[in-house]
Amino acid sequence: MPRAPVDNEGTELFYADSGPVLGSTDYTTLVIYHGSAFTGHTFHKLLPFGAKDNIRFVIVNRRDYAGSTKYTDDNLKDLNEGKAAFMERLGAEVAHLLVWFSETHKIPKISADGKSGGFSLMGWSMGNATPMALFAYPDFPIYISSDSIKHTTDPPFLAFGYDQPPEGYNPFTDPNLPTQEAIFVNFGFWVSGYYNHPDLASRSVPSLNFDKRGELPDPNNPKSTGRPFSINNMTEDEMKVNFDGVAASRTEFPMFFPMQPALNVQAQKVLFDEKQVNEVLPKAEVVHIWCTRAQWYCVYGMMETERQYKESLKKGEKVRPIRFVEIEGANHFVHWDEPEKFWAATVNVEKRRDVPHNQEPFSQKTTPGPSLNETRSISNKAAAALLKLTNDTHELAASLCQAGSVAAALFAAVQAQLLSIAPTGDTQAIRTLKVFAFAGLFSNLGATSAYVAWGRTMAWDLFAFCVMSEYTYGSPKLL
Question: Is residue 184 domain-resident?
Answer without folding.
Answer: no
